[in-house]
Design goal:
By secondary structure, this protein is an alpha/beta fold. The protein is 36% helix and 27% strand. It has helices at 2-25, 49-60, 75-85, 99-112, 134-142; strands spanning 27-32, 40-44, 66-71, 89-93, 116-120, 145-153, 156-158, 167-169, 174-183. Helix 1 packs across helix 3. The longest helix has 24 residues, at 2-25. It is globular, with a radius of gyration of 16 Å.
Length: 195
């Protein structure tokens, strides 16, 4: 057990160090026509999860602190660590039927405190680029704007063996981030989102 815990800790620190290297070396170009309010619902594609830590870090300077919905299983431990390294807060939500209670609490909390929420639109397990209704459900019930974020990379490693084709940007590359505000979006009226 201690070996597993030590290994997990080492991986978390390695991911955080790599994120810091990207923070210092990647040129980020923003296409940002968004108006920032007290709180918003951010949606992004699961494949961009790694770099989204740095995007959300910057967005937190423009709006309220950003809470990120993260899976409650062991994978979520790594994600939560990186989210915290970038000044965010992770909201752990179990996959499947157990998610209902956690989502209900998130919606209730959104009425009581001012914060933004970020969610991978096609997560946690796909299919790729097919948005689930969670972000739009949150937008509708909290009456907060849905903001879609798309990312493109000049140079990256893409893990083709994964369902999401996960992206790891390379240092000294350029990343284009497009931020678009769709207003309050209902879960039964999902807009066409760029992939």
């Amino acid at each position: 057990m201690n070996v597993r815990k030590t290994g997990a800790g080492m991986l978390q620190r390695l991911f955080a160090k790599y994120l810091d290297l990207l923070r210092r070396t990647v040129a980020v170009r923003w296409d940002d026509g968004n108006r920032y309010g007290d709180s918003q619902i951010y949606g992004f594609w699961h494949e961009d999860s790694f770099f989204m830590n740095l995007v959300l870090e910057r967005l937190a300077d423009r709006t309220t602190p950003v809470d990120v919905i993260v899976t409650a299983d062991a994978r979520g431990n790594y994600i939560e660590y990186m989210v915290r390294q970038c000044g965010g807060n992770a909201l752990r939500v179990p996959d499947g039927y157990g998610a209902f209670t956690a989502i209900k609490k998130i919606v209730k909390d959104s009425y009581e405190k001012t914060h933004s929420i970020a969610v991978a639109l096609d997560g946690p397990l796909g299919p790729r680029h097919e948005p689930k209704k969670l972000a739009f459900y949150l937008s509708e019930h909290a009456e907060e704007d849905f903001v879609g974020i798309t990312v493109s990379y000049s140079s990256c490693i893409r893990l083709w063996c994964r369902w999401d084709r996960y992206v790891i940007p390379l240092p000294w590359s350029t990343v284009d981030v497009s931020v678009r505000n769709y207003g309050v979006v209902r879960k039964d009226c999902i807009p066409e989102l760029p992939a």
